[in-house]
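Sample intake sheet
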Amino acid sequence: MWTATLLLSLLAFTRVESMTQQDSARELVEIEARLARAWVERDRDFLEEILSDDWAVVDAAGGVRSKKQVLAEAFDTSELQVDSARIEDVAVRLFGDTAVVRGRSEVAGSYNGESMAVSLRFTDVFVQRSGRWLCIASHASPISP
């Protein structure tokens, strides 16, 4: 009797764990969509909230840029202007309180006054702190036409 109860408990735990992972994956996909919108809508508050203070991005040219540098370019100096951003092909891998999210983005806008339109593959690393997901690192690689 106790074996059946133990087995049912394990199955229930596995199902709850699976549902929790699905919920986390869905939340991270939504965060990625909100990040894309935040660049277009110039929502600095959301970006400040979701990017950890020590966040950095390896950009398409191979440079490493800090949160402070990127936000300054987008908001303080207006060097970076994102007019449109679309993400697709998003996949989430969960490792406890850490997640790796990869996808594809199509971005158009300008940098230092020069128009740009790029297709990128991105990877974002998130950690869960105090019950919320924070992006701690990003990487972007251009997709050849």
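Comment: Residues 86 and 106 are 5 Å apart (CA to CA). Residues 10-19 have pLDDT under 50 and may be disordered.
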